[in-house]
């Protein structure tokens, strides 16, 4: 192995070790917070639920926009004007 390959391997090994340490720390914190909040779940289940909730949110949002479009068409105006009339902002919020 030449010097550049060896140096690159050493650098990648150090990065891998650092990332494994971060992963272990995140898992430790997840389990600590889960115990504190009495949550009996795994990170995978939390992510799966989050994705399911996002899909549901997007479906509801699309339905709402569709209904708003129908209202805007009936009033012969833009969707933005319907939202403003209802006091809603068109921006998604976190």
From TrEMBL:
Gene3D superfamilies: 1.20.5.170
Presence of the UniProt keyword DNA damage in the record: yes
Coiled coil found in the keyword field: yes
Gene Ontology CC: one annotated term: condensed nuclear chromosome
UniProt feature coiled coil, ranges: 9-36
Keywords: Coiled coil, DNA damage, DNA repair
Pfam families, per database record: Swi5
Protein family membership: Belongs to the SWI5/SAE3 family.
Protein name: LADA_0F11474g1_1
Organism: Lachancea dasiensis
């Amino acid at each position: 192995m030449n010097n550049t390959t060896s140096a690159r391997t050493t650098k990648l090994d150090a990065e891998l070790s650092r990332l494994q340490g971060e992963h272990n720390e995140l898992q430790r914190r997840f389990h600590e917070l889960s115990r504190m909040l009495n949550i009996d779940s795994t990170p995978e289940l939390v992510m799966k639920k989050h994705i399911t909730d996002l899909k549901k949110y997007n479906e509801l949002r699309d339905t709402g926009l569709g209904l708003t479009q129908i209202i805007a068409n009936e009033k012969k105006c833009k969707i933005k004007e319907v939202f403003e009339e209802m006091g809603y902002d068109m921006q998604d919020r976190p």
